[in-house]
Amino acid sequence: MDVNYVGEHLLPGQIGQFFIVLSFGAALLSCIAYFFATKNPEETSWKKIARIGFWINAVSVVAIGATLFYIIYNHLFEYNYAWAHSSKTLPTYYIISSFWEGQEGSFWLWMFWQTVLGAILLFKAKSWETSVMTFVMLCQAFLASMIVGVEIFGLRIGSSPFILLRDAMDIPILKQANYLSLITDGNGLNPLLQNYWMVIHPPTLFLGFASMIVPFAYATGALWTKRYKEWISAALPWALFAVMILGAGIIMGSFWAYEALNFGGFWAWDPVENASIIPWFTLIAAVHVMIAYKNSGHSYFTATFLAMISFVLVIYASYLTRSGVLGETSVHSFTDLGMSGQLILFNVAFLVIMVVFLVVKKKEMPITEKDEEIYSREFWMFIGALVLTVACAQIIASTSIPVFNKIFGTKVAPPLEPIQHYNKWQSGFAVIVMIMTGFTQFLKYKRSDSRKFLASTVASLAVAIILTAIISYFTKTYTNLIYILITFASIFCILANIRVLGDAVKGKWKLAGSSVAHIGFGLLLIGAMVAAATNEVISVNNTGYIAVSGFDKVEKPGENLFLTEGEPVQMGEYKITYIGDSIAAPNTYYKIKYERIDEETGKVKEEFVLQPFAQNNAKMGGLIGTPATKHYITHDVYTLITAAAAESQAQHSKTANEEKTGFEDYEEPATYQVNIGDTLRYRNGYYVIEGLNKEAQLEKIPKGPNDVMVGLKIKVVAADNKQYEVQPIYLIKDGGIYDFNKDVTDQGLKFRFTGIKPDKDKLEIMVYQKPLPEKKWVVFKAIKFPYINFFWCGTIIMTIGFIMSIVRRNKEEKRKLAK
Amino acid sequence: MKKSSIILIAIIAVAIAMILVIYTDSSTYSTFTEAKEKKTELYVVGQLNKDKVLHYDPKTDANKFSFFMYDNEGTECEVVFRGAKPQDIERSEQIVLTGKMDGNVFRASKILMKCPSKYNDKSVVTEINATAFNN
């Protein structure tokens, strides 16, 4: 059955799909041609074909991106990708984020960066071009196959971003010719991704991932073409670049988590986070061993192995996050697209390349038989790299539990407390690595004077101990041995590197880059440790907790605080008030005013308003809170809405719609025996029984001669001094007793005059109260993060250090080539 | 043998030992019956009992949410979570709890829930942590 669908724009999709297939073909052609160009360097035609393939691929990749952007930008919801990841209300800059919300877009991003890197290699790699580009283009072909989205022999290969909505989903509505007129808007972007960090974090991270192919390709190319020794210095600037960008990308992600996610922290050891840090660790280890080899000739195999495994782990990371294998263990992995087989193939392909080259060429590798000196820098760089690798193995082992379950059919659950689990291991490794990073600065390559070494190490250790005592005291981390050790190791590392930096100022600028990066990392570690160890929830709820005594005694006071609009609550040193909210669709901003008041004078010392917001998003399952943070130099105050009033109101109205008796909106009534002149309280004020009205009249019911009809005059005075007069009526008619109630709607009150008791000289009334009209309220959580600025600061310093090192290594390589 | 080779072997041994230790740290997916026996912190997988009332009244205690849940063997148990009620738990099709048994009540420190996405058949996993349960 052919249906003529109305209003579809099929051309962009066809163009896009064409370029995907073209990019795949061109990448494959280029890879093969580079392969033969490496085998037959004399025949220049292979290289020419390979380069043509590369450029066709490059143009295709750009065209795919442009077409996809056109589709999302113009809200062509006939395409699944645009529909699933964007909506009309999305601001333009978030259209960029929606671009890589899906797997397909993020694969494209990876391809795009690989194209950019490939172009640089084409111009700069010179004699390395053919062998290095063989592997780059092989990877490019694999990536293109991930988005190709065609079926071959009943096997679906890849998932195309240009698939139509009606093909992607098997829903009858979509088979109607006019289905597009029914789709008014897209699914929208996940609110957690609607954050400026999400515009910049994925491209940075993927540039980091993409650039890790270069050291891999150099190492493999070197083994293949037997240029064993040369690759290390050629690949070193690239490896440094990859470490720098990936590190920056990871930390941007942690900034995003801190700013936008509601788990209350900057690092949670989530499998997705782990997946990105694993290759970062191994490549850092690789960089150090590469430098050690370059200066001493030791550890060639380790350097090559680490550079290669890093990229294999990048692919493993994308398998973890994209295949759906993490399932319930991760909150933010991609949705499963059923490509796990293809991802495994990608992984296995590069793993096999690595193993084959390492095994086959092992004998030819320039491995020295000389034993390393203990008092030598290369020896400790090697050991440090190994410790880093073991640290990495711990993360891999713990993160891969779902993978092992899948392979062995077991049902092991990941550790219950992942953060404690990882911290326990990684803090130990961090101490060892930082101390090594410290004292290795005092060692020279090949052989150093042990007396000099010991003297400078001891001097630095002494200063480090003093500084650690001071810092532990001020940051209040002295209660825990491991915190003290981390502080000490980091301080020692920083001090040792400052000494090297001191030499740099005297003229040895060469070593400045690494020491700046080490100092940055030390600061980062201290900041992370202090912020993670001493962050405290300041919205501790002590009230309402004591009230349920006995029952809750095993538990600590809760961390969520209940705030009613306009009613200030004292929270630690702050007086906080929920002063209202404003709606900027789709978000609701809750204004929380913080005031610090001087206890003696009562003056407001400091006042600020935080506006955490929340989005009620059905796609993500309800209210998604986004924190707001007040930044100080020494600490941050982080505020997050965990529940808000709108929700509970909706639930209230649900129950009220059944049978109407006129009383169901009220609470259980209270009966009082009163006298004239009595004053009684009610929830929002008081009322006075003013007197009886014997002249009371009722419409429709005429008073008979024997009837008694008495009104009771009641004056209601609300808390805001508003007054209301009501008169419920008591009636005895023809022997029967009736009463006619009266409402005070504004106050949610209903009065019945139910009896006159002459024997007791009392009047009986029944008072019904409505539950108070619900005031707006929020439940929120506030956390204080001390010294988190060290963490961000350290990151920036570390990145600067990397840039300095890249510049230096690049210069060295150029000078070498010029000779 | 070279020093580096000895150290390499030592470190590999450490790594293997470490991985074994990691597995002692790992947990299992369990049931309420097992939780009652063991009294230790563990995971329980199951479904929300949608017929019973979910209790969350932030005005009296913003940090207490209780509900009833069936585990995968069909055993029902009351669950108390110290924290705000996870939004949309009513729609969840599967819940993974972290916590331990206390008498006849399961005290959850973390709720991980899988909700059917409104728009397609893919499920969305959300994680909610309780507050200050173990500290």
UniProtKB/TrEMBL annotation, chain B:
Q: Which domain of life is it from?
A: Bacteria
- What InterPro entries does this protein's entry cite? CcmE (IPR004329), CcmE-like_sf (IPR036127), NA-bd_OB-fold (IPR012340)
Arranged from A to Z, the UniProt key words for this protein are: Cytochrome c-type biogenesis, Heme, Iron, Membrane, Metal-binding, Transmembrane, Transmembrane helix
Q: Provide the primary localization.
A: membrane
Any one GO cellular component localisation term in the record: plasma membrane
Q: Where in the cell does this protein reside?
A: Membrane
Query: GO BP, one example?
Result: protein-heme linkage
UniProt keyword Iron present: yes
Per UniProt, what is one Pfam family of this protein? CcmE
Q: Which GO terms describe its molecular function?
A: heme binding
Q: Is Iron among this UniProt entry's keywords?
A: yes
Q: Where are the transmembrane segments?
A: 6-23
Stored SUPFAM superfamilies? Heme chaperone CcmE (SSF82093)
This one is known as Cytochrome c-type biogenesis protein CcmE
User: What is the source species?
Assistant: Sphingobacterium detergens
